[in-house]
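Hey, I'm writing a tutorial for new members on how sequence and structure tokens pair up, and I'd like a real worked example in the thread rather than a made-up one. If someone can provide the structure for the chain below, I'll link this post from the tutorial.
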Amino acid sequence: MAKSRKSRRGAPAASVAETVDGGLAELIPDPDRARAWTLLLDGAPQSHVDLDDPTFLSFEYQRRLGHVIDLVAPPGRPVRAVHLGGGALTLARYVAATRPRSTQQVVERDAPLVELVRRELPLDRNARIRVRSTDAREGLAKVPDGWADLVVADVFSGARTPAHLTSTEFLDEVRRALAPGGWYAANLADGPPLTHLRGQIATAATRFAELALVADPTVLRGRRFGNAVLVAADQPLPIPELTRRAASDPHPGRVEHGRALRDFTGGATPVTDASAVDSPAPPASAFT
């Protein structure tokens, strides 16, 4: 285990490195923001947190999930949220900052990672965030029926989403936990020929009436590996507002929905527990 503490007050912060269940976790200080950090696991960027401004979302996919959080209910209204995958608890911090009095459950299997994040990047004492150190699907099963206004899935093991979190049976558990009118959002990662992404859309379409996909246009065209945010609900989604927000990001995203999204799946087959596989591993160039 390697570790270096923060420097004395007034000096630049030092990085922190510690072995956790998922590999080598590193907290790297952001040179442009005084109390901001990037979490890496085995060299792959996982999260960015600004302790002074938890509403600041640096990563593209996290900004897109932030748009979903902003739209899931009227501005400022507290919500009940379940986060599958914790990382540095970036999105849970965002909900707590933008929707005070929200109640949140975070399911993060890597207990040593949770301990590291809590110690080095402490949560606001007023944040109503409970963290469970268990498998995401097992933790989801403990959420009461109809409890959540929002379920966010952002789970990666070795930079891949585990197979058991990609199936119709998994989405049945998501639906059970969601309150009427609740939303599901998932961070998906894929590259050409986008087989995994198409399959995940086809799978969600068997369980939810309304879908939208937000991603970089080059990812949607199958030109590079990248992230896409899938949003699902049983009532119409605010597509115009989601489109406007995604288009105004520093790296503009495109929103696909309706007929165009159905055509994008290209006849992909829904995934079940029996057929599920991990999402594809990113190429080495993805993090360079």
